[in-house]
Amino acid sequence: MSYKFKYVALLSICVSICNSTIAQDIPVDTLTAATVTSAIDRNINFTQTGLTKIDGSAFRRGFAVFSSPDVLKTLQTLSGVSSGTEMLSNLYVHGGDGSDNLFLLGGVPLYQICHLGGIFSSFNTDVVEGIDFYKSGFPARYGGRTSSVVDVATKDGDFQEYHGIVGVGLLDGRLQFEGPIIKDRTSFNLAMRRSWIDVISAPACAIMNSMNKAYGEKQNLGYSFMDLNARITHILKPGSRLTANFYWGNDGLRINQEFEGRDPDGSLNDLDVTNTRFSWGNLLGSLNWQKDFTDRLDMRLMGFYSGSRSDIKMNTLLEYYRTDHTDMFKQDTYNRNRVNDGGMSADFNWYPHHKHHIRFGGTYILHSYDPSHTYSEYDVDGGEVFTDISKKEGVESIGHEMGIYTEDEMSLTRWMKVNLGLRYSLYGTDGNVWNYIEPRAALKFQVSPNVGIKASYSEMSQFSHLVAATYIDLPTNSWLPSTSEIAPMRSRQVAGGIYSRLPHNMHLNVEGWYKTMDNLIEYKGMNSFFPPLTDWEKDFKTGIGKSYGLEVDFGYDTEKTSVSVFYTLSWNWRKFDDIWPDWYLDRNDNRNKITVVANHRFSEKFEMYASWNYHTGNRMTVASQYLPKEEGSSIGEFLYESPNNAKMPDYHRLDVGFNFYRKTKRGNISIWNLSVYNAYCRINPLYATVVREKSAGKPITFKGSGIGLIPIVPTFSYTFRF
Q1: CA angle 223-228-233, nearest 5°?
Q2: CB within 8 Å of 636: residues ≥ 6 apart
Q3: Beta bridge partners of 677
Q4: Rounded to an integer, what distance in angstroms lies between the CA atom of residue 181 and that of residue 187?
């Protein structure tokens, strides 16, 4: 069994999906969704375009399929964002790839943003205070990525009282507790999550092994994740505080396979045993000092560490029993990836006037890349142990990243506000140095108290590349720096639109964007569990991209009812001269995307919500025909019209959920959540294959076939707030 198949199979078992599949023809050339309701700040007074602010309370009320509300699946519902593969927490923003989004937890970059390949995000919503999500109009204080910024702020603990949350769901459990260490001076906030998918999968494996016992087959699969958030805040004196943040996350996966071959008389003739262990995750820590010098000047200093790691161990034992001897082969393989960042930042806010806000500061990060050291040992027939030096890879390197910025936001008139920013980015590694000046500008014109017009321009640079040979978030994916052959990625984006408050508690925003991308990388080759790292630049091609589109956001909000509609019309193009000589559509070119989210609170004890998601199908490459081999040739020829020339079937799904509230005499609150993912059991394509069609007297042709695995999935959770 291949690694890729094992991984996909595990995902299927863990989410308790059925084995039913459906094939859908693909013509050539043709969430857990969390409620995003009134908690989204749609204030038209913000200068920046493409900004969505989400308050942490949105997640506590939100849709909780698979036990917990999810930050990334909430963002997937927004306009301008594509989700990619079914159920996964990928973000493809304004035509970008998943690796060009900047994820910040408490201001510190986070690399591994998902658990279970993307089904759960790494952000625990019990400690989230709020999120600033930028799709365009990036302020100058952000740098290092080219598509979006997801800035997640965590909460201080309560300085007065102790209270917390206990949650139990279908696949995980969680605990959050906060309170004072020194009343009015020092507080803590602690939260942890742990899945029990390994407990659920154990009986399934036991049943399967009992059925296959007669064939000598035995398999055990186990997966679990755990993460921990901690925050301590100490008030030194009024206007001065220290904050320490900590995050640790870990995923563990084990695959054990055993096969016994026996002769007709029942005697053992061969033994095949394979044990594989995966472990990956993050470690993050920071220390912040915030100081208010005056009412008009404040400072924030931060030192931080962020590390990402993955380890894979595989042991293989083959024994063949002969009459007079035993043949044996033993192999031990170890693979590891590391990214370690250490840095510091300084940010200042100065208010020379109540209509004038100046920000300035800088960041320095020391990057250490240590990807995919693979080491194998062989033991044949109990003799000498051989080390396969050819399999030992390592491209360890050190990178220095520095950014200096200034922003000036001011009200020019009563109706006009502008944000002008400039960022200087420098990156050096292995004798290569790049530096860019990145202008940022945003303009808002207040036509009336309820109508605003905005426009923005921004340039962004990205110096790190995610080397991945598949679209799944695998622990073998590696981060590598730019080199003399692979230059930093660059993007330029212009955006603008109209933002309005309407009568009767409604709002309507219409925004368009145009974005260009340079130095994109694309793996040219077959999917591989271990992507190539020795001379990796030779296996990846560079190209350019462009995307443009229109977003429409409509909302209706009252005290009890909220309805949000997000629509996107977009085009996403790529051009890689080494792959195809002309522009072609990207895999995630979802031409139309619609999300409708509704929430209604019937009483203090009962609430109902629903989310309907639709988008045009992803694209794939299908050969137009196959020419048989000619005389003197050993192979035939595949003919292609262009890459990604086939569109998968359109995607649509309805999720519904119910919250039941009960308040105790002591003021504690218990919440039962019942929800249904894919309520009308639409079997959407999870992945695609190419089917070969052959008719007598006609050329061989091909078509795409979408394979679906996810049926209706009911889930539940119980939350107790004390």
Answers
A1: 175
A2: 626, 627, 628, 629
A3: 713
A4: 5
The model's pLDDT over 544-587, given as tens digits with 9 standing for 90+, comes to: 999 999 999 999 999 899 999 999 999 999 999 888 889 999 98
Please, are residues 155 and 176 in contact by the beta-carbon 8 Å criterion?
A: no
Rounded to whole angstroms, the Cα distance separating 448 from 275 reads 67
H or E element in which residue 716 lies: strand 713-721
Q: Which helix (H) or strand (E) holds 75?
A: helix 71-76
Tell me the per-residue pLDDT of 650-691, one tens digit each, with 9 for 90 and over. Answer: 999 999 989 999 998 888 999 998 989 899 999 888 777 777
Domain that holds residue 39: 3-721
pTM of the model: 0.88
Cβ-Cβ contacts under 8 Å for 292 (sequence gap 6 or more) = 239, 240, 298
Summarize pLDDT for 3-50 with one digit per residue, the tens. 343 433 433 333 333 333 333 444 333 323 333 433 344 557 789 999
Closest listed residue to residue 611, CA positions, set 101, 110, 77: 77
Cβ neighbourhood burial of 330 (10 Å; 0-12, 13-18, 19+): middle
Could you write out the DSSP letters of every residue in 515-580? EEEEEEEEE-S---SS---TTGGGGEEEEEEEEEEEEEEEEEE-SSEEEEEEEEEEEEEEE-TTT-
Report CA-CA distances (Å) from 258 to 213, 255, 319. 11, 10, 12
d(C-alpha 392, C-alpha 348), whole Å: 47
* Count of positions (residues) in the chain: 722
CATH number at residue 122: 2.40.170.20
Q: How many CB atoms lie within 10 A of CB 25?
A: 11
Look at the chain and report how many structural domains it folds into: 1
